[in-house]
Specification:
By secondary structure, this protein is α+β, with helices and mostly antiparallel strands. The protein folds into two domains: 31 residues; 264 residues, Beta-lactamase. Helix content is 38%, strand content 18%. The protein is built from ten helices and nine strands. The strands form three sheets. The chain has a five-stranded antiparallel β-sheet with strand order 2-1-9-8-7, sandwiched between helices. Strands 3-4 form a two-stranded antiparallel sheet. Helix 5 crosses helix 6.
């Protein structure tokens, strides 16, 4: 005959696995919830296809691939994005690795806007001015120049100054250009630009310095969240003064590099150019990242990478912007 104590003992033994299973399930549910929250907040995998991370971003889908009827089959890549409804209108080789040239400076600008104080003073180093590739684009800064970070951003984005890029990099990373490049790559991963790798803050050619059309969209889209950036890219010119190391003042004037702002190219009828960022090297070809809007004031980001020359670049860009009317 089995007494009550024995029965209770067997019941406890039988219930123990069930209790353990329930506890493990609860832990798994909590871990799954944590993982889901983490992915939504920090996910930096491929955001080009899928909707977990990119619910408020344009994504690439096979339906919009322009390979069947490309705008310019010789271009390295291009894309058009409707940023009002987050629809990708068309794209071509937008997820392939490409050399970005000076469109690199979009990431440099993003970090300045995100982590810098625009009213703080930047002092231009000798390295920022004198250790650049001969003939590269500069903002005509001089060693010892002192001017606000907000002004240096105009020299970076508007004038596309490589000297401005290095000056900002050293300012934000305590004098270390290499540390700033690490910041660039960390930020690229954070915003989902996982096919991007930077080697410098300006875009002068290096084999391991690359991005994609889609990643440039992600970077530019982040920049556009800052009103200061929109003001810079829409400016027709900019005048500032720098203080030299001996205390004397020097006036500096910068102009945009894109042909629309300079009056050397006209957009399609009904399209308004807000502004953007150019880039050109022998290896990258002619590149342009642009914000525009149609007659309904719907905003679009259009990107052309690797056009054979400036004439073809703006012809390609106009053909993309014609699609904004549809």
């Amino acid at each position: 005959m089995v007494n009550n104590a024995t029965v209770k003992k067997y019941i406890c033994l039988l219930c123990l696995p069930v209790i353990l299973l329930l506890l493990l399930s609860a832990c798994s549910m909590r871990q799954a919830a944590y993982a889901s929250d983490y992915m939504l907040e920090k996910y930096n995998g491929s955001v080009q296809k899928g909707d977990l991370f990119a619910s408020n971003l344009c994504v690439l889908t096979d339906k919009t691939n322009g390979e069947e009827a490309p705008v310019d089959a010789a271009a390295h890549g291009y894309a058009l994005f409707n940023t009002d409804n987050n629809k990708t209108i068309t794209w071509y080789k937008a997820d392939e690795s490409l050399f970005p040239a000076s469109t690199t400076k979009l990431m440099t600008a993003l970090l300045a806007l995100k982590s810098g104080k625009l009213d703080e003073t930047v002092t231009v180093s000798q390295h920022a001015v004198e250790d650049l590739e001969e003939g590269s684009s500069v903002a005509n800064l001089k060693p010892g120049d002192q001017l606000p970070l907000s002004d240096v951003l105009y020299g970076l984005v508007m004038q596309s100054g490589n000297d401005a890029a290095v000056a900002i990099a050293e300012f934000l990373a305590d004098g270390s250009e290499a540390d700033f490049v690490k910041m660039m790559n960390d930020e690229a991963q954070l915003i989902g630009a996982t096919k991007t790798h930077f080697m410098n803050p300006h875009g002068l050619h290096e084999e391991k310095h690359y991005t994609t059309v889609y990643d440039l969209y992600l970077i530019f889209n982040e920049c556009l969240k800052y009103d200061e950036f929109r003001t810079i890219i829409s400016a027709m010119d900019y005048n500032t003064s720098s203080t030299a190391s001996d205390g004397t003042m020097r006036s500096i004037n910068w102009e945009p590099t894109n042909y629309y702002a300079l009056g050397e190219a006209d957009p399609p009828k009904g399209i308004t150019i807000i502004g953007g960022k150019t880039g050109t090297t022998d290896e990258a070809g002619c590149c342009l990242v642009l914000l525009s809007q149609n007659e309904d004031e719907t905003p679009y980001i259009s990107i052309v990478m690797g056009a054979a020359d400036k004439h073809i670049l703006y012809a390609d860009m106009n053909e993309l912007m014609e699609m904004e009317k549809d």
